């Protein structure tokens, strides 16, 4: 059992909270039972190590059993060690070190996607993670993330996805203008989500392959990005609220698409 919170291995795992360490090592951390469960179930080949406390081993026997069946190495550690690795206020006894997956845009487009979401200069980890989770729930084919956005493998983003980051491709490091041009060439219409849109989410054509383009939390989308999209679309506000935040607006847009794609609520 690992009991020394100052051991080199512990410091190495804790270091993955820094973007530079993740980029150098190609590894990131999935913390907590929900994220670890989805990593073990849906991306077992990406899991390099799984750390578990004695209490969590008993409490989450299903995850431990699935990990053993997938030949994932389990390393038992003390609560103090797991807290040092996690860096969270209330660690939950399970932590997985995973290899970063780097899907390519070309592979996503080759599968003729029906629904995509694009994050342009999205900086807030909670918002990014919630949009990824909403995209997964709505049946989106992939999430496309442009340069200068938050690192989708940052601990707060991974935690906010509640495991959804292991369910669908997340392509990162994309340049906005080039990405929009590639989507157009692939026959994917691009809808810029913006409160100044002339059409609403209820009026735009969601029967065609399309991508929702979501902007920065503070300033939204730039004029250049809006102009490069096929249409600028707004979520109607029926009450007195000034606007919806990024994650809420993205969820409304994605579920509007899902209702058209699956009108009877089928999965």
List key phrases describing it.
267 residues, alpha/beta, 12 helices, 39% helix
Cα shape: elongated
Helix coverage percent: 25-40%
- Percent strand equals 15-25%
Note the main sheet.
7 strands, parallel
Total of helices = 12
Walk me through this protein's architecture.
- The protein is built from 12 helices and 11 strands.
- The protein has helices spanning 8-14, 19-25, 33-42, 54-59, 61-69, 79-86, 105-110, 125-137, 155-161, 176-185, 223-228, 246-261, and strands at residues 27-31, 47-52, 74-76, 94-99, 115-119, 142-146, 170-174, 189-193, 199-200, 210-214, 231-234.
- Strands 7-6-5-10-8-11-9 form a 7-stranded parallel β-sheet, with helices on both faces. The chain has a 4-stranded mixed β-sheet with strand order 1-4-2-3, with helices on both faces.
- Helix 8 (125-137) packs parallel to helix 9 (155-161) and helix 8 runs parallel beside helix 12 (246-261).
- The mean pLDDT is 94.
Give a summary of the structure in a few sentences.
This protein is an alpha/beta fold. It is 39% helix and 19% strand.
Q: What topology does this entry show?
A:
Blueprint: H1 8-14, H2 19-25, E1 27-31, H3 33-42, E2 47-52, H4 54-59, H5 61-69, E3 74-76, H6 79-86, E4 94-99, H7 105-110, E5 115-119, H8 125-137, E6 142-146, H9 155-161, E7 170-174, H10 176-185, E8 189-193, E9 199-200, E10 210-214, H11 223-228, E11 231-234, H12 246-261
Parallel strand pairs: 2-3, 5-6, 5-10, 6-7, 8-10, 8-11, 9-11
Antiparallel strand pairs: 1-4, 2-4
Helix pairs in contact: 1-6, 8-9, 8-12
């Amino acid at each position: 059992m690992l009991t020394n919170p100052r051991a080199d291995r512990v410091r190495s795992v804790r270091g993955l909270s820094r973007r530079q360490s993740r980029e150098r090592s190609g590894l990131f951390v999935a913390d907590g039972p929900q994220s670890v469960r989805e990593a073990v179930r849906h991306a077992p080949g990406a899991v390099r190590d799984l750390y578990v406390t004695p209490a969590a081993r008993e409490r989450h026997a299903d995850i431990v059993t699935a990990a053993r069946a997938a030949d994932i190495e389990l390393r038992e550690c003390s609560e103090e060690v797991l807290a040092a690795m996690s860096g969270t206020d209330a660690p939950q006894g399970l932590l997985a070190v995973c290899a970063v997956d780097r899907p390519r845009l070309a592979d996503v487009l080759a599968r003729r996607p029906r629904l995509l979401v694009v994050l342009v200069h999205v900086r807030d980890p909670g918002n990014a993670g919630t949009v990824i989770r909403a995209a997964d729930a709505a049946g989106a084919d992939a999430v496309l993330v442009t340069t200068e956005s938050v690192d989708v493998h940052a601990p707060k983003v991974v935690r906010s996805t509640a495991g959804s980051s292991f369910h669908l491709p997340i392509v990162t490091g994309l340049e906005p203008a080039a990405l929009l041009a590639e989507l157009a060439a692939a026959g994917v219409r691009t809808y810029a989500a913006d409160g100044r849109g002339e059409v609403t989410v209820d009026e735009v054509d969601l029967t065609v392959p399309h991508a929702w383009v979501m902007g920065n939390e503070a300033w939204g989308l730039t004029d250049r990005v809006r102009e490069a999209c096929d249409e600028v679309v707004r979520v109607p506000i029926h009450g007195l609220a000034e606007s919806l935040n990024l994650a809420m607006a993205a969820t409304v847009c994605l579920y509007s698409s899902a209702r058209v794609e699956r009108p009877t609520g089928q999965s």
